[in-house]
Amino acid sequence: MISKRIAAGLAGATALSLVLAACGDNGGGSSSSSGTTVSSLSVLDYYNNDPDKSLVQKGLDSCASQLGITIKRETVPGDTLIQKVLQQASSKTLPDVLMLDNPDVQQIAATGALAPLNDMGLNGDGVIKGMVDATSYDGKLYGLAPVTNTIALFYNKDMLAEAGVQPPKTWDELKAAAKKLTKPGRYGMAFNANATYEGSWQFLPAMWTNGGDETDLTSPQVAEALQLWVDLVKSGSASKSVINWTQGDVNDQFIAGKAAMMVNGPWQIPSLNKNPKVKWDVVQFPVNKVGQTPVAPLGGEAWTVPLNKDQAKQQKAADFVKCLNSDENELAWAKARFTLPTKTALLDQYVTEVPSMKAFGEQVVNARARTGKLGDKWPEAAKVIYQAIQLALTGKASAQDAFKQASGG
Questions:
Q1: Residue 17, pLDDT above cutoff 90
Q2: % pLDDT > 70, the chain
Q3: SS3 229
Q4: N or C: which end of the chain has fewer CB within 10 A?
Q5: How far apart are CA 57 and CA 45, in angstroms?
Q6: pLDDT per residue over 153-165, tens digit each?
Q7: Which residues lie below 8 Å from residue 91, measured CB to CB, with a gap of 6+?
């Protein structure tokens, strides 16, 4: 559910720019002459496994039916999508509609491969600001995301009640609760701190909520956030294994009763619901100081329109993206996949109909795009973040020095 980037693919953005310059306009898949009726569109996405593959297919088929077209869909593993885009650009076979993880939109838009949606009658009015930031480049909108996700704090209701602990609202309360909930065979807290972009993603609520910023990773606010992770592990309230865990591993620990609280996203809810013995709830990520606003990262994929010399097909692709982002489809996809609609006006209705998503609905309003400040340089910062986390949690550097060391300073 979160970014599955390939370092090589991202580094290849410059190569893609050169390819496009050499090849000119992309053929956009199966061609049709301008002015003729468009009867089909090609679509590329990375939802290659069920249940998401089938759920997304229903949404695609619904819009195809509304527009009176057929679709030819190709799905690939998430970690191969960017390389696939590079290859298709080279061979002038980019699809008519391309799905991208939201942090990748600016990267691909910068190469000139995508058509600005504004030029085809689409806009981001009413969409969560963080998502508009993620899918815009040089003042133009290049993608729209029907749904989004973020991360927050899950807790085991029975375990907290038994220990007389309230869901924490501050970091001090979080550390105290985690310590009280820890006992043989069970940690109070679980999170992912592995050496991947996923480890960076899970650290962002602590960093951003505390006023830390990826444009200055050596600030006291960032060090304080890292110290929170260090304190939880050093005190024994979180396992030393967090440096290796994925978000799936964290969820497994929670379901098995080996963790009383965890940082995770709503995509884990289906597996939690399959284990009715686990009584759980969710709150926003705690703040360091009273008065701060919990800020978490935005996940989710955006649908884009690659440049196409066939203007009729390009416009039809834009109409298809518009359909995918209709109020009806946003709500349907969000309900089916435990995600959140990106239009703020739909959030109250959605949370009323899906109460388990209440905390995520609150969290997502103030959530931020990972590329919001650094744009296509975000992956470099993300790498420094997860390397610094590893250094601090393994005792190779203090929280104050870890980021300096990770950035080569």
A1: no
A2: 91
A3: helix
A4: C
A5: 11
A6: 999 999 999 999 9
A7: none
184 phi, psi to nearest 5 deg:
-50, 125
Residues 159 and 104 in one domain: no
- Within 10 angstroms of residue 270's Cβ, the number of other Cβ atoms is 11
> Tell me, what CATH number does 258's domain have?
3.40.190.10
The DSSP code sequence of 170-207 is BHHHHHHHHHHH-BTTBEEEE----SSHHHHHHHHHHH
Q: What does DSSP assign to residue 286?
A: P
284: which DSSP letter? P
Task: Count structural domains, the chain.
Answer: 2
Q: Is residue 305 part of a domain?
A: yes
**Within a domain: 185:** yes
> Same domain, yes or no, for 269 and 386?
yes
Interior CA angle at 52 toward 46 and 55, to 5°? Answer: 120
Count Cα neighbours of 393 within 13 Å in the Cβ-side half-sphere: 27
**How many Å from the N-terminal Cα to the C-terminal Cα in the chain?**
33
User: Domain span at residue 19?
Assistant: 7-149+299-365
For residue 172, being part of any structural domain is answered with: yes
H-assigned helices in 235-367: 247-255, 269-273, 311-324, 327-337, 347-353, 358-365
Residues 290, 168 share a domain: yes
Same structural domain for residues 121 and 236? no
- Percent of residues, the chain, with pLDDT higher than 90: 82
What span, in angstroms and rounded, lies between the C-alpha atoms of 228 and 245?
18
192: left (phi > 0), else alpha (psi -120 to 50), else beta? beta
Q: Which two tokens stand for residue 153?
A: 């704090």
In a domain, 219, yes or no: yes
One domain, residues 291 and 307: no
What letter does residue 32 receive in the DSSP assignment? -
Is residue 77 domain-shared with residue 20, that is, in the same domain?
yes
Asked if 351 and 308 sit in the same domain, the reply is: yes
Residues recorded for the chain: 409
What is the residue type of 232? Answer: L
